[in-house]
Amino acid sequence: MAELTLPIRTERLLLRQYRIEDVDALLAYYSDPLVARYIPWEPWSREFAAKVVARRIHSSGITGAESRLALVAEHEGEVVGDVILWPADETLSRGEMGWAFHPSVAGQGFATEAVRALIGAAFEHCGMHRVIAHVDARNEASARLCERVDMVKEAHLRQDHWTKGEWTDNLIYGLLAEQWHG
Known about the structure:
The protein is of the alpha+beta class and 182 residues long. The chain has a domain at 8-133: Gcn5-related N-acetyltransferase (GNAT) (Aminopeptidase), CATH 3.40.630. 26% of the residues lie in helices and 35% in strands. Strands 1, 2, 3, 4, 5, 6, 7, 8 and 9 form a 9-stranded mixed sheet that branches. Strand 4 and strand 5 (78-87) form a beta hairpin. Helix 1 (23-30) crosses helix 3 (46-56). It is globular, with a radius of gyration of 15 Å. The two termini are 14 Å apart.
């Protein structure tokens, strides 16, 4: 297991720690109701964006049960999205991931590239045995993303999650370290 060095560079992206000056770039997509539709909070206000960014500035690795690896994805100096990994239990051997990307970059492969890099960090640097993603069953784009990065759909839980005033179906995707091809 190698030590995680930030930023992480992929073919087209720079995955780096959050900075206070990221508030407006993140607000540009998290304030969009279509982006916020399948995530656990309402569209962001500027105040909420500032609070999230202030918290995530220090989320640079998996060191304990409450730790996070939160990274902003940049393409050619512009923020296009962000990814996050957190421990799914106190052993730190299982992780859960989430992501969001600006709608203007949909279909360009940036989310796939960033999530692959995050999975690599989970297995190769954090020593995780397994990573999962919980996906709202209506979020076809995220389900396809999970499949593109070789995650396996392990469950479709009917009306499993109460969010934004309704019961929603929850898909669980998983990937084991031994199945990861880097």
